Amino acid sequence: MTTLVLTVVGNDRAGLVAAVADVVADHGGNWERSQLAELSGAFAGIVEVSVPAARTESLRAALGAMEGLIAIAVPAAGPHPAAGPARLISFQVLGNDHPGIVKEVTSVLRGRGVSIERMTTTTRDAAMAGGQLFDASIAVSVPADVDVDQLTAELERLAAEIQVDVAVGD
């Protein structure tokens, strides 16, 4: 079996996911994992599928014919490089929304060689204060050679600097 990672992007409409699932199934593929969402009238997602090696190219062609909706990648073989086993930690970021929050947080992670496994962000009305709140849930893979306490301290320092709250947990 060959693993493919599909990126699905387009204007949201009923039946979009079903159309992709039909093509995958018609080529003997299996829908393994996905993250899909509608945002402001657009639909976006990432899907991992497995397909018999002999049918990979016909599946690629069929997906490619879907009006520019799909991008296809073949994941690199083997696990992500790391200095020993990684530790998974998660944290929340919450504060008044302003430009640069994601840039600042991800810069700290990149500087320590930390990889984002999952990240969900949203903004919502601040009930009492007015304006918008930014809220992020982030799960990261921390290489064994990175001190988690130092990473936490760096995130807390950044939180004070950019005026958000960061809560780190395991």
Automatic annotation (TrEMBL):
One BP annotation, GO: regulation of DNA-templated transcription
Q: Which InterPro entries match?
A: ACT-like_dom_sf, ACT_dom, GcvR, UPF0237/GcvR_regulator
Give the matching Pfam families.
ACT, ACT_6
Tell me the SUPFAM superfamilies matching this sequence.
ACT-like
Pinpoint the ACT domain residues.
5-79, 90-170
Listed name of the protein = ACT domain-containing protein
> What species is given as this protein's source?
Microbacterium caowuchunii
